[in-house]
Amino acid sequence: MVDKASNGVKKRVLIVGAGTAGRKVVSEMRKESRPDIILVGFVDDDPKKRKLTIRGAKVLGAVRDLPRLVKKKRVDQVLISMPSVDRGLVQRIAKIVPQGVSVKILPSIASVILGHVDLSYVRDIDPSDLIGRPLVKSDQKYISDKAKGKTFLVTGGAGSIGSELVRQLYDSKAKRIVVVDSWEEGIFNITEEMGEKRAGRPELRAYIADIRDKRRVEDIVKRWKPDVILHAAAYKHVPLMEENPEEARKTNVLGTRNMLYIAARCGVKDFILISTDKAVNPKSVMGRTKRDAELLVKRFAKKYPRRRSCSVRFGNVVNSSGSIVPKFVRQIRSRSPVTITDTRMTRYFMSIPEAVSLVLLSWILAKNGQILVLDMGEPVKIIDLAVNLIRMHGLEPHTDIPIREIGARKGEKIREELAYDKRLLRPSEDPRIFIAEDIAS
C-alpha cells in the first residue's frame, strides 16, 4: 500500500496517470484522511489532461518531466496509477526516477479486474511489471461464463502455474475446483489463501497426491467427476533434470500418460496439458520429456476423438519458483554479483497471470489434438533483464552491482523456440493464441 511516513514526517507523493484510477486513488486518500501523505500532483502524457486540477491536485507535466518534478517538489514516492500501463512505460519510469525515491504501482488486476481502486492494492514494482501485459476484463468475464457450472481438476495445483489457475478459476462461475499436488506445504498455502476469500465462490477440494500414483489419482477423479483436467504437474528445472533423467521421465511422461488414461477411463471431456517452448527441438532432458508428453496427448486425441485433448505451449513465466528472476532479485538485494550464463542468451517471458488467462482461453478455443502456442511477444535478452532489475532497485549496473558471465549449463539453449516451423503457425480465434502444425514425432 502507499507507505505511511514514520516519525510524523509527511510523505510527498506524485501520481503517474490522471485517469479514472488516479482520480480514485485521490478519493481513497481523502476518504482515509491520511495526514501523513502530501499529494504533490499528477503527471500524464495525455495533452488533454495538462493543467487539469483534480480534487485540488494539479497535472504538473508529462512522464518525461518526472526527474525535474521529483527534485523540484521534493517527492518521496512516485505512484503509477495506470491500469493499462505497458511494460515499456514501467521500464522508462523505473529508469528515470532519481535514486532514493520509491516507485509503487497500482496493479491492473486490482483496478481493472476487480473494478475498483483501494490503497491496500498499491505495491512495489514487481519484475513482472517489466515483462507482463495487463489482464483484460472482457477475457476474465468470458472465461468465467464458460466455466459456469463446471468442475475443474488442476494437477500441480500448488505450483506457480497451477496455483494461478486455481486463483483465476476461483474468481469464475465454476462449480468446483479440485487441487492435486504432492507438495504438502503448497497445498496448505493455497487452501489457506482461498479460505480467506469471500463466500459465493466455487467449492474447493485439495488433495495431496502424486500423478505417478495412478490408483490414488483415479480415485479422486472418480469421486468428483471433473469436466476439465488442467495438467500442470511437471518437473521443470533444466539443469536439475539433466542430473535426474529417470525422475523427469517418471513425472513428465509417465505421469502425463497416467492422467490421460484416467481422463479417458473416467469420461473427462477436456484434457489440457501445460507444455513449454523447451519441447521444440529439445536439447535437454526436461525438453524431451515435455515433447514426449505433447505427443502422448496427440495420440490419445486420435484414440478418443469424441473428447478434447490438447496442449498449450509457452515460454518462461516471471517469478515462477526457482526461475531466473527471483535469483537475480536475491543477488541484487544481497549486493552480490548478478550471474548470467551467456550474454547472448534470450528467453520468451510472460507474467504468470497473463499466461494462465491465455491457457484458460486456449481451453475454450481448442479443438481435439491441437497444440496451441501463446503469443509471447519478442524474446528478451537475459543481460537486458538483469540490467533493468538492477536499475529497478535504484542501483547502477556494473558499478553498484557487478554482472558476471558464468557460461551456459548442461541442457540450456542460447535461444528457445515456440514452434518447429513458424511458417506453419495458424491464427486462432484469438490473436494472442496460435495453432502449431508440428511434425508428428
Give a structural overview.
The chain has 441 residues and is α/β, with parallel strands linked by helices. The protein has two domains: 11-125, Rossmann fold (3-Layer(aba) Sandwich), CATH 3.40.50; 137-400 and 407-436, Rossmann fold (3-Layer(aba) Sandwich), CATH 3.40.50. Helix content is 36%, strand content 21%. It has helices at residues 20-31, 66-72, 87-96, 108-113, 137-146, 160-170, 184-195, 214-224, 238-243, 245-265, 285-303, 324-333, 352-365, 382-392; strands at residues 11-16, 37-43, 53-54, 57-61, 77-80, 102-105, 123-124, 151-155, 176-181, 203-208, 228-231, 270-276, 308-314, 316-318, 338-340, 346-347, 349-351, 371-374, 380-381, 403-405, 426-427, 433-436. Strands 10-9-8-11-12-13-18-22-21 form a nine-stranded mixed sheet, sandwiched between helices. Helix 6 packs across helix 13, helix 8 packs parallel to helix 10 and helix 12 (324-333) packs across helix 14. It is globular and about 70 Å long. Residues 108-117 have low confidence and may be disordered.
Annotate the secondary structure layout:
Elements (H helix, E strand, L loop, with lengths): L10 E6 L3 H12 L5 E7 L9 E2 L2 E5 L4 H7 L4 E4 L6 H10 L5 E4 L2 H6 L9 E2 L12 H10 L4 E5 L4 H11 L5 E6 L2 H12 L7 E6 L5 H11 L3 E4 L6 H6 L1 H21 L4 E7 L8 H19 L4 E7 L1 E3 L5 H10 L4 E3 L5 E2 L1 E3 H14 L5 E4 L5 E2 H11 L10 E3 L20 E2 L5 E4 L5
Parallel strand pairs: 1-2, 1-5, 2-4, 5-6, 8-9, 8-11, 9-10, 11-12, 12-13, 13-18, 14-17, 15-20
Antiparallel strand pairs: 3-4, 6-7, 16-19, 18-22, 21-22
